[in-house]
Design goal:
185 residues; alpha+beta; Sulfite Reductase Hemoprotein, domain 2; four-stranded antiparallel β-sheet; two-stranded antiparallel ribbon; 12% strand; NO2/SO3_Rdtase_4Fe4S_sf
Length: 185
């Protein structure tokens, strides 16, 4: 019998974050059944960094070639009317841009398994995974949470991230190391 990521990662996720992911998974199922208001669900998923996307031409460029997307692309929209099977994007928070080797390994794994293998770096020192399916987001969030990464409050009227100099802590010309302060925030 194949174990789910929830079972495999049991005990590796901070309890509060695990409960939040469980609640989101329940809300996702209720939305699929049509018993959870779409506007409320849109706010719920956006607060967790889950966006709908529109791809008018149904193609993407991977840096070398333009290739068709493996998603339907006909009348897809974004916003509260996002169609269920539309490709989406997940914003992943990386406080002050600090990533451990273990976190990088999980990021690479989920990029290859759930996306098109490319992690996009944002101006706020976060990552974005494009071309994900909304049904995969609870698993994605659990796998990220197991190594101390969250998508919590990656969108909306919230502190999306705390940024710092990429050389903080190793630059000989810095007045002091800001990393413990950035981490505390």
């Amino acid at each position: 019998m194949t174990r789910t990521w929830k079972e495999k990662l049991s005990g590796q996720i901070e309890p509060e974050l695990g409960r939040e992911i469980d609640i989101f998974e329940t809300q996702l199922e209720l939305r699929r059944r049509g018993t959870f208001d779409e506007k409320v669900f849109a706010e719920t998923r956006l607060r967790r960094g889950i966006y709908g996307q529109r791809y008018d031409i149904g193609k993407r460029h991977d840096g070398i070639l333009t290739q068709p997307l493996n998603f339907p692309s006909g009348d897809l929209t974004k916003g509260p009317e996002t169609m269920w099977d539309a490709p989406g994007m997940l914003r992943i928070k990386i406080p002050f841009g600090k990533v451990t080797p273990g976190q990088m390994e999980v990021l690479a794994d989920v990029a290859g398994e759930y996306s098109h293998g490319v992690l996009h770096v944002t101006t706020r020192q976060d990552f974005q995974l494009h071309y994900i399916h909304i049904d995969d987001t609870p698993e994605l969030m659990r796998r990220l949470a197991s190594v101390g990464i969250t998508t919590r409050e990656a969108c909306g009227n919230s502190v999306r991230n705390v940024t710092a100099c990429p050389l903080a802590g190793i630059c000989s010309g810095e007045s002091f190391d800001v990393t413990p302060y950035a981490g505390a925030l």
